Amino acid sequence: MRYWLSMLLLSLAGYCPASELVVYTWEYYLAPEVKSRFEQETGIHIAEVNYNSDEARNRLLSGGYPPEFDIVSIDSLSLNDPVWRALFTVMPASIRKQNTAIDPVFTARCGDLSVPYMWGSVGIAYRRSQVSEPITRWQQLFTPEPTLSGRIVMVDDTFDLVSVALKAAGFSINTHNKSELQAAYHLLQKQRPSVATYQLSFAAVSDQQFGKRIAAAMVYSGDFYALQQNSEYKDWTYVVPEEGSPLWLDCMSILKTSQHKAEAQRFLTFLTRPDIALLNGQTMGFTPALKKSYLPASMQNNAIIYPPVKQLQRSEFYNADVSKNELRSAIYFSVLK
Predict the structure, then answer these.
(1) pLDDT tens-place string over residues 177-212
(2) 215 near 164, Cβ under 8 Å?
(3) How far apart are CA 226 and CA 35, in angstroms?
(4) Contact present, 173 and 246 (Cβ < 8 Å)
(5) pTM here?
(6) Which CATH number among 2.30.110.10, 3.30.70.1130, 3.40.190.10, 3.50.50.60 corresponds to the domain 121-246+308-336?
């Protein structure tokens, strides 16, 4: 990824015309058809630079990001942090008012520095042929059956890794209770021998070293599509566990240093058009941040894209103060060291 980023930036160095925007985002997160449509309508080309974790994104942004970057996809929780807020420009009120198809809950969470992009759950993907009984609870991933030993993938993320352990232990993902966080820590430590790697699932199944033996994974809902595409096995299934799930929301923000703010605003307005948001979501397997009434029945009834009501009621978005909890970071680094 570093080599690819370096080569792209070399190609952009000294030349980034107004007819091109550079978007820093997750891999498999922006449909090629959407980029083509935008270029056809406006003549503006979209170039991507990809990251593979929030931590990798944050390291680059905090370490002095390339001046060619225009737009960043960023989680709504991070937008509560003054460190990251300082990087982005306020979105014109006119753009936010135009987004009448966007769910106002998501608009409020992304705030005045961004537009809502995609949302979803964190669940479990597993191969049906590799387990003796269906996986329906987080506890089954933390105290796995023997056949899963060394064959599990967990996400490398400070908040979500700890939060699914909290859910497994029966606690809120927003807790600040020390004993509850310690219980999550003990679950994560107990699980370590069963974990093959801490990274995104679709990348893990492509790894030549251990990809073929992966049988279960902590997965962001939209990544399940990429997991299926990258794996040679076709018996994967996805479930939102009975205990509920951390819910995530990603937003699109324009960097203050962008030299193409007008074009960037035009692109974000384009992304939030209902027809484009649906095309993007359906192509990439994610849930666009639209009001539910805008989603077709095929999306509303798809448990991967839209969690079942019972599990959704037990799921939670992060409160803003979670990002200030230093014990979570300590747990994360202790588990992954």
Answers:
(1) 999 999 999 999 999 999 999 999 999 999 988 899
(2) no
(3) 19
(4) yes
(5) 0.88
(6) 3.40.190.10
Please, are residues 217 and 126 in contact by the beta-carbon 8 Å criterion? yes
The letter for the amino acid at 171 is F
How far apart (Å, rounded) are the C-alpha atoms in residues 79 and 317?
A: 14
User: If pLDDT is split at 50, 70 and 90, which confidence band does 1 have?
Assistant: very low
User: What are the DSSP calls for 146-180, one per residue?
Assistant: GGGTT-EEE---HHHHHHHHHHHTT--TT---HHH
Cα gap 312→100, rounded to integer Å: 24
* Average pLDDT estimate for 97-104: 88
Place 18 in a pLDDT band, splitting at 50, 70 and 90.
low
Distance in angstroms (rounded) separating the CA atoms of residues 294 and 171: 33
What does the mean pLDDT of the chain come to? 91
The encoded tokens of residue 218 equal: 């902590």
> 17-119+247-297, which class in CATH?
alpha beta
Task: Please report, rounded to a whole number, the percentage of residues in the chain having pLDDT higher than 70.
Answer: 95
Query: Which pairs with CB-CB distance under 8 Å and at least 24 residues apart come from 4-9?
Result: 5/49, 8/47, 8/49, 9/49, 9/66, 9/68
For residue 34, the 8-state DSSP code is H
At residue 8, does pLDDT exceed 80?
no
Where residue 312 falls among pLDDT bands split at 50, 70, 90? very high
Answer whether 17-119+247-297 and 121-246+308-336 agree in fold: yes
Whether the CB-CB separation of 29 and 200 falls below 8 Å is answered with no
Q: Distance between CA 88 and CA 102 in Å, rounded?
A: 21
Q: Map out the domains of the chain as residue ranges.
A: 17-119+247-297, 121-246+308-336
What span, in angstroms and rounded, lies between the C-alpha atoms of 225 and 237? 10
